[in-house]
Amino acid sequence: MIRRLAPSVLNADLAQLADQVRLVEAAADWIHLDVMDGHFVPNLTFGPPVVAALRPYTGHYLDCHLMVDDPEALLPALAEAGANGVSMHVEALADPERALAAAAGLGLDAGLALKPGTPLDTVLPHLGDLDLIVPMTVEPGFGGQAFDDRVLPKIAAAAQAIVASGRTIALQVDGGVNAGTLPRCLEAGADTFVVGTAIFGADDPAAAAKAFRALIDGGEPRRG
Ligand code: DX5
Ligand code: ZN
After folding, report:
1. Rounded to two decimals, what is the model's pTM?
2. The pairing of beta strand 132-135 with beta strand 109-114
3. Which of 92, 149, 177, 207 has the most CB atoms in a 10 Å sphere around its CB?
């Protein structure tokens, strides 16, 4: 079974983005980029131009988490910028099916993200069109928040639904993932782990990323 580490650069030193990514590349599978518009969430980060600026500096998969009011509008520019996958918040989409098809049509892996309080039912009708599900374990907007373990049953239910679908769909956890909470996510069936401050807030981000890699590869998964 594939397990992925996706360091989030949200709380990295963004003035040195390419260097920060290089620090964690050896341990990472995906690089998680949090695009925020200051409306869907109170924070404002970066968009397609920064994704394009980073693209020549890494061959890694660029996983863009879109915390914006109109994710569909950003898709062409993100594809052009060299993004590999997108996760769009289901709460922001009037027509998830159309948005997922638009992403796929641009060659992007297509995902849906859910806030902690959003039921899994909102994404289940779209399993046939999805590459990624992200049940968030904090309210989106900021790094460094505490993991909300009330989301664990939703992660387990998503894992079961993925198995039942027979499709290859990544199950990503995002928010408050650290050495204490990661094993619980793995046990619930998650396979892709976004880690922000527990890597980039560490004294040695490269060593921290390596330790997460070992934790992920050493844990026992449970699916279905
Ligand atoms: C929060 C972002 C996360 C964030 C995770 O809205 O989606 O990707 O960077 O950071 P930590 O790991 O610190 O919770
Ligand atoms: Zn994120």
Report:
1. 0.97
2. parallel
3. 177
Q: Is the CB of 63 under 6 A from ligand 1?
A: no
Ligand 2 center to 56 CA (angstroms): 22
CA-nearest residue for atom 4, ligand 1, is 143
Query: Using one digit for the tens of pLDDT, what is the confidence trace for 112-156?
Result: 999 999 999 999 999 999 999 999 999 999 999 999 999 999 999
In sign, the C-alpha dihedral spanning 223, 211, 82, 52 is positive
DSSP structure class, residue 219: S
Ligand in closest contact with the CA of 137? 1
Amino acid at residue number 114? L
Separation CA 65–CA 46 (nearest Å): 11
Indicate if ligand 1 lies below 6 Å from the C-beta of 108: no
pLDDT in tens, 46-58: 999 999 999 999 9
Q: Could you give the maximum distance between any two Cα atoms of the chain, in Å?
A: 44
- Determine whether the shortest distance from the Cβ of 65 to ligand 1 is under 6 A: yes
Dist. CA 52–CA 184, nearest whole Å: 35
